[in-house]
Design a protein that fits this description.
Blueprint lengths: L6 H15 L3 H26 L19 H12 L6
Length: 87
């Protein structure tokens, strides 16, 4: 049904994009697309994290109101920084 896109087709598409937007707008478009993808990725990750139960295997505890304890917030920050809690 559909065949693979070859190098000729890619060059043709890039040429059309260059004609439509111009050379000066392409870096702005790429930067904006990168930001949008980064935001989308972080939102998807947050949605996956929201699906976790209130008590997971790491011992994180959530209050009755759904608020995290300070120890939980501190351990999450350590994980984001790439350091271990035991260090």
């Amino acid at each position: 049904m559909f065949r693979q896109i070859g190098p000729t087709e890619i060059l043709l598409i890039l040429g059309v994009v260059l004609l439509l937007f111009g050379g000066r707008k392409l870096p702005e478009l790429a930067r904006g697309s990168g930001r949008a993808l980064r935001i989308f990725k972080s939102e998807v990750k947050e949605l996956k994290d929201d699906d976790k139960p209130s008590h997971d295997l790491d011992g994180e505890v959530v209050d009755e109101d759904g608020a995290r304890t300070e120890a939980t917030a501190r351990s999450e920050q350590l994980r984001r920084d790439g350091t271990s809690e035991q260090a």
